Q: What sequence folds into this?
């Protein structure tokens, strides 16, 4: 799960787990594994979190990787940690070694992706390699029954890689996140309709997932290693360029000093000069 802070990613995960565990409307309960806060300026998820759900009587389990929301008040440095943590998760012997879906969470009202969000999203998606594109899906929250045109156009404009329909449209699933609100008996019919809609949407989502190919993360690990080597190479080149610029400055200072000395020597027999000598800290 990847998404900007405030998109309702935490609420969506709670709803998904309730669906998997078979919670029904008549049970009159709502399970939460991830706490939802009213503060929308900070991500509710402060670290990469892995949830494993084992429904009783079902032959499968559900593993959800929840990433911190991008773009909160804690800054870009916090966002940059996410790809590094995912790298450790994919490489660990007890970590995640295959994946069915990468879910990008957007609000139906999102008209554009901010530059910071695009940067971090690109960082995360680049971990998986190009063959993961057909496994990237758009999950749209706070959605009504109509087509979320703003959010879909946002995806097209930003050229986000994702699974496409035969018509070339992004594959998306809608959720309204109404379940996270405090229940009020006066709005019973509204909540019931929302609940039924959520069940239908999750049925469509998991039905679609059953027909796609699970991707191994072995290639992803190779991408991560290559990326780390590339980052180290770029960092080394930056150091070399900086050192070359300092040496150029040193030569210019020496040239000027020699010219000054030449002029000075015409009047004096003894002279000295100073230049800045660059060095690299070990």
A:
């Amino acid at each position: 799960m990847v998404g900007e802070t405030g998109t309702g990613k935490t609420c969506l995960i709670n709803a998904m787990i309730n669906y998997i565990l078979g919670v029904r409307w008549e049970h009159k309960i709502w399970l939460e594994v991830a706490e939802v806060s009213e503060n929308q300026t900070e991500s509710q998820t402060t670290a990469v979190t892995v949830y494993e759900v084992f429904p009783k009587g079902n032959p499968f389990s559900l593993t959800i990787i929840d990433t911190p929301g991008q773009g909160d008040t804690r800054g870009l440095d916090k966002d940059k940690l996410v790809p590094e943590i995912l790298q450790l998760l994919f490489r660990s012997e007890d970590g995640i070694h295959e994946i069915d879906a990468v879910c990008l969470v957007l609000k139906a009202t999102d008209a554009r992706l901010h530059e910071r969000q695009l940067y971090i999203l690109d960082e995360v998606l680049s971990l998986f390699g190009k063959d993961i594109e057909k496994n990237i899906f758009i999950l749209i929250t706070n959605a009504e029954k109509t087509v979320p045109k703003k959010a879909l156009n946002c995806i097209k404009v930003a050229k986000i890689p994702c699974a496409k329909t035969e018509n070339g449209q992004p594959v998306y699933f809608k959720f309204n996140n109404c379940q996270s609100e405090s229940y009020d008996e006066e709005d019973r019919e509204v909540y019931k309709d929302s609940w039924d809609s959520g069940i239908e949407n999750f049925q469509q989502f998991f039905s679609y997932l059953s027909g796609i190919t699970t991707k191994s993360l072995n290639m992803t690990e190779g991408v991560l290693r290559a990326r780390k080597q590339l980052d180290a190479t770029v960092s080394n080149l930056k150091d070399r360029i900086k050192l070359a610029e300092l040496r150029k400055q040193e030569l210019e200072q020496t040239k000027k000093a020699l010219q000054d000395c030449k002029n000075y020597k015409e009047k004096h027999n003894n002279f000295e000069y100073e230049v800045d000598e660059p060095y690299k800290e070990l």
